[in-house]
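Let's practice the habit of predicting before peeking. Look at the sequence and jot down your guess about where helices and strands might fall. Then scroll down.
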Amino acid sequence: MLEPSNNDQLPAIPGKRYFTIGEVSDLCDVKPHVLRYWEQEFPQLKPVKRRGNRRYYQRQDVLMIRQIRSLLYEQGYTIGGARLQLTEGANGDQATHYHQLIRQMITELEDVLDVLRA
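Done guessing? Here is the structure:
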């Protein structure tokens, strides 16, 4: 089994349209029962279900699973923290912009405070 910090050593994703749960398990180095659990915990992860309730994952699902794996195993997030990180990721650009503006305002206010103290 791969070390958690070696997510970049996962195999390349083949150019197929659909992947079975076993294939995704091998591609992401995550057991099938963990994949089924993550489907319940992460609303972004919704594989196509066909006859017999069999799961078929698409490429974007495999990439999402690798991202979830990285958040949980490499970065040490909890399930809730990883879920929050993924939902903020959709709004991440806007949030990053706001954080930069806030930092800039704090710096400017500190400069004004220094001038007033002098």
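How did you do? The longest strand covers residues 48-50.
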